[in-house]
Amino acid sequence: MIKTDQATYRQCELLGQLLPQREILPSDSQYFKVKDFYWSAQQAAVSPQCFVQPGSAEDVSTIIKVAERAECPFAVKSGGHAAFAGASNIQDGITIDLQLLNEITVSEDRTTTRIGPGNRWVDVYSRLDAKNLMVVGGRVAEIGVGGLMLGGGISFFSARRGWALDGVRNYEVVVASGEILDVNLESYPDLYWALRGGGNNFGVVTRFDLETFPQPGMWGGMAYHSMDHNVTLNDAFFNFADAAHEDPDAQAYLAFCWLKDYESYVIMSEVTYARAVEYPEVLKPFTDVPAMSTTVRLRNMTDLALEMNATNPNGMRQVWMTGTFRMDREMLQACVDIFVEELQPVKYLNGIVPAAIVQLIGKDTIANFGRNGGNCLGIEPGEGPLVNLNLAFLWVDAADDEVVERVIRRVLERCEAKGRELGVWHRYIYQNYAGKHQDVFAGYGEENLRRLREISKKYDPEQVFQRLQPGYYKL
């Protein structure tokens, strides 16, 4: 039986004895500072019985053993960048805050970097940029390492190297028994496969060992365009699926946004090139489109990630939903049209910024999904190129939650219906952009889901991470 609030509080006190100065109770001055340090307002509104900040994998093992033996519900937080309440925080439970697990160590041969899940990507990039090195990771500075790595990790280097999860050589992970395992293709190939996209269902990862490569500089940035260029930019994005295959250093995506203060729609194009080359030919279909403003320039990854961070403000109410479809010109335009048509009920809400974002999951990216034994996402090479549709709305007032969530669901439902009508809708649901109600692992395919459940039962026979850690997406 899962413990009551008072029983959980007693386990918090026990953890304070076992791990002195690692536990934070509501009576402690730090509590509200830690509680507020979430990206979305919904997550920050959740109040655990305590936070525990482990300083080592051994500390994490102690916490998991206590929670398991006492049947205490818990959550695990890396950067806290999920949108919905309870994703990485838990009401009246124990929240394991990994921020002290912040190792960044480059190997002597400069081919591997050991990275703790408590880091933000800006911490990683600033350290590696100084050495002209890089790893495949997130694009927004303040996103945490842990959640992004376990769900996917779309990157500026994805066409050449896959997603962030494809670059993990080894995981240090605490499993349900409290045992600390080094998990790689040779040691535990089944668990290694499952961790590459399986989310938080298999244990607490306390270190990622990532492939590291030379990266002396890059080019890119954002440009903002009038909605008058909608068709031109959608055509550029459609054609980019083939162009990116010819030049995998190039990345581009489009975000269609409503700006209430300007009473207008705008299109943001984000273009990057993984070499220090200005205005490469492959990206000119985007950069030649007239822009109201642009930030494209020669820069490094730290600079790019900090710029992207400005589009992801903390403390707002947030909701994200996502879907996937095969690249199709008519479908691209339909998504934009549906987004515009459905926004009327929310256009003038306090602080509202709704966006519909399309990102390429190209043939080269998908080919990299097969590296090192493959990942568990369930996307096969012949299915590309695909497009990720990310619907992302932010606003201020909790009183508007219902109408915002109704509108964003309606946009996704209509886009899915159109995709099915055109025969281009794909089952895959990208975990890191999914809404709370979305069935992420069903989107991985029946066989992969069956295999993930088998691996979960092998390493977690009592299903600790399914029962006691309710947050995020379960198998």
Task: Describe the fold and architecture.
By secondary structure, this protein is an alpha+beta fold. The chain has three domains: 5-100, Uridine Diphospho-n-acetylenolpyruvylglucosamine Reductase, domain 3, CATH 3.30.465.10; 104-214, Uridine Diphospho-n-acetylenolpyruvylglucosamine Reductase, domain 3; 218-435, Vanillyl-alcohol Oxidase, Chain A, domain 3. The chain is built from 16 helices and 20 strands. The protein has helices at residues 5-18, 31-35, 41-44, 57-70, 121-129, 145-151, 158-161, 189-195, 230-246, 284-287, 301-309, 329-342, 363-368, 401-422, 446-459, 464-467, and strands spanning 23-24, 50-52, 74-77, 94-97, 104-106, 112-115, 133-134, 168-174, 180-183, 204-211, 213-214, 218-226, 250-259, 264-273, 293-294, 297-299, 317-326, 353-361, 386-395, 425-426. Strand 8 (168-174) and strand 9 form a beta hairpin. The chain is globular and about 65 Å long. The protein starts with a helix and ends in an 8-residue tail after the last helix. Keywords: FAD, Flavoprotein, Oxidoreductase. InterPro entries: BBE, FAD-bd_PCMH, FAD-bd_PCMH-like_sf, FAD-bd_PCMH_sub1, FAD-bd_PCMH_sub2, FAD-linked_Oxidoreductase, Oxid_FAD_bind_N.
Q: What is the CATH class name of the largest domain?
A: Alpha Beta
Q: Taking Cα atoms only, what radius of gyration do you get, to the nearest Å?
A: 22 Å
Approximate shape: globular
Total discrete domains: 3
Structural class designation: alpha+beta
Keywords: FAD, Flavoprotein, Oxidoreductase
GO molecular function: FAD binding; oxidoreductase activity
Organism: Neohortaea acidophila
Family: Belongs to the oxygen-dependent FAD-linked oxidoreductase family.
